[in-house]
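Run log // design_07
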């Protein structure tokens, strides 16, 4: 289950970073 949580957190961070980059 920990792997799923890490994957979700990482994907959300990637989305935020990509949005910030434009």
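design_07 sequence
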């Amino acid at each position: 289950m920990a792997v799923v949580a890490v994957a979700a957190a990482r994907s959300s961070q990637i989305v935020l970073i990509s949005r910030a980059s434009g």
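DSSP finds one helix and no strands in the chain.
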